[in-house]
Structure formats: C-alpha cells, structure tokens
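Hi V.,

Quick status before I head out on leave. The structure for the redesign project is tokenized and pasted below; the design run finished overnight.
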C-alpha cells in the first residue's frame, strides 16, 4: 500500500512540476493542438472554438486547478460550475491532469478530486473516474501515460491503469490494470497483455456474454440429444466442440488479480 501511495505522489509531483515549468498559456496552446492528433473529423482550427467541448473542459480545468492549488477554493469551484454548463463535464478542480490529455466529445465525463491523469491520455464521452469510499484520502483512479478510456467506461476507486493500456467502452474497472493491457467487461477483465503498439479498436473486442450464452446453449442441446434415444448423436464430437467454446470463454474471462 505504501509503494502504491508513493507512485501516486511521484506522478502528481511530476505533473505539477511540468505545469510550473511550461506555464499556463503554453499549456493551453498545447491543449489546442491535441485534437489534430486524435480526431480525424477535425477539418479546421475554427472548429475547436465551437465543436470541441473536451478541449474547453481541459482548459477550464487548467485555470481552476491553479486557483485551487493556491487556496482559491470557492473561486475555482465557481469556475468549474460555470464551465460544466457549457461543456457538460464535471471535473473537480483538485484533480491532477497532465499534458496533452484529450477528452473526445466530452459529454457526461466525470473526474473526481483525487484523480490523477498522466500525459497523452485519450478519454471518450461518458467516462467516470470515480471513487467508491467516503474517505478523504486518495479514492479516485490514477491513469498512466498513453492510456485510452473508452466511451461510457467507469473506473472506480484508488487504482492504477497502467501505461499504454486500453479500457473498452462501457466497462467497469474496479482493480488495477497492468501496463500494455486491454480490459473489457463488467467487471472488467484482461483480454490482452503486452499489447504495446496497438490502438484501441472498439469494434474488435470480445463479447463475453455471447461466449457464455453460446456455451450454455450448446450444453443444453447436448443434454437434449443425449436424452433423445431416437437421435444418433456423436457425443464425443459434440463434447469436443463444447470444450472449445468453454476454453474460449475462460480465456475471455481471464480476471484481473486484486492487490
């Protein structure tokens, strides 16, 4: 637990140091350049002012966070409240967000007070980086560099999403995710490990429920065939097919170990 606490503190200190060295206006300028790298739908810089609430949500947070860290708590909360009316996001001013973080579409994104997000993280709409306790300590996730959080995903609690990891859409993450991994499902399970270079392909994720239902339906059919003496069924062949389906399901359900 102590090592994990130190990791959070070290990442936060690194982010705050980079903010101080870069300065607010240079960081805001950098934020405006991020959509060009992450959104092929962007045709001109003019669109950034009217069609990218995620950019404005980050910029609004940059200002509020600096005020919050200097003790202007009420003012920072007011700035966040006004900004949320326009961006439809809820980012606590105490949250620590690194460089070149991009929130695509942004609508419905919630980021808690003790959340820490490292550089070059991509977050889609409807994501929640939330807490599961009422303790005043670290209770929100830490997202390491180059990670992708799919739309509608819920990352809950004081956990760590490792570097270069991907969280599938609508997944619910309640345990640490190792670096270079892909996690999907409710609760989220690891489906890929050491996948360093691949980008998150939302259409290329396994359907765990489908695997389970396929197995159950096949098992019921096999039992019905076995009970029906009028049908000549190759039970060995059926069992082999069923075993293959079950193996695929178990592979898809490879769970994250709680620490």
């Amino acid at each position: 637990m102590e090592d994990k606490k130190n990791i959070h503190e070290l990442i936060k200190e690194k982010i705050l140091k980079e903010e101080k060295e870069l300065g607010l206006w240079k960081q805001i300028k950098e934020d405006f350049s991020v959509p060009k790298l992450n959104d092929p739908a962007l045709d001109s810089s003019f669109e950034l002012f009217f069609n990218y609430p995620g950019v404005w949500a980050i910029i609004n947070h940059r200002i509020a966070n600096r005020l919050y860290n200097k003790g202007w708590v009420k003012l920072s909360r007011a700035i966040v409240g006004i900004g949320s009316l326009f961006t439809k996001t809820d980012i606590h001013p105490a949250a620590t967000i690194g460089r070149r973080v991009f929130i695509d579409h942004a609508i419905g994104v919630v980021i808690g007070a003790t959340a820490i997000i490292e550089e070059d993280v991509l977050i889609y709409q409807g994501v929640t980086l939330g807490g599961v306790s009422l303790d005043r300590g670290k209770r929100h996730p830490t997202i390491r560099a180059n990670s992708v959080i799919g739309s509608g995903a819920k990352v809950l609690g004081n956990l760590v999403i490792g570097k270069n990891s991907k969280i599938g859409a609508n997944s619910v993450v309640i345990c640490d995710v190792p670096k270079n991994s892909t996690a999907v499902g409710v609760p989220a399970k690891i489906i890929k490990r050491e996948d360093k270079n691949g980008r998150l392909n939302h259409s290329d994720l396994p359907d765990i429920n489908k695997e389970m239902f396929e197995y159950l339906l096949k098992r019921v059919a096999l039992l019905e065939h076995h009970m029906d003496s009028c049908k000549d069924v190759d039970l060995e062949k059926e069992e082999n097919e069923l075993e293959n389906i079950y193996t695929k399901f178990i592979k898809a359900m490879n769970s994250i170990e709680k620490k």
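Above is the designed sequence. The two ends are 9 Å apart (CA to CA).

G. will cover questions while I'm gone.

Best,
W.
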